User: What shape does this take?
Amino acid sequence: ISMAGGLYLMVGHGFCSSCLFFLLGALYDRIGSRSLLLNKGVSTVLPTFCIFWFLSCAGNMSNPPSISLFGEIFLASSVMQVGMWASGAMMSVLFLSSCYSVYLFSSVYHGSGFSSAKGWGKVSFSEITTSLLHLVPLNISFLVMK
Assistant: This one.
């Protein structure tokens, strides 16, 4: 069960982290900065990006229905057999990574907007397609699990 959990977690991480890097690169192309302080308030200008970023951060936190959730459940059940100290350490790491995902989303998409962006433009079809090609397998692949 731990091997399956590790595989599910790796696949989920591959989809959500590459989608987050893609979305960050698309924001960098528009704003010209990777600073979290300068990228505040994006939700008012690019609501489509907000949806994709939220789903990616939710997948990074292993929220349902992402395949990462099942990977973490399988790994947690395997770690519990090792001992309670290992379970406590794992739960602490999971909690801290979830807190960081919430902080990442809220720091970029909430707050006062960055008024001097180079040019926001609209979200292109290729950006939507690329984001969906990351998020659909992340959130639908639990249907084909054995």
Remarks:
- Helices lie at 2-31, 47-60, 67-82, 84-109, 125-140.
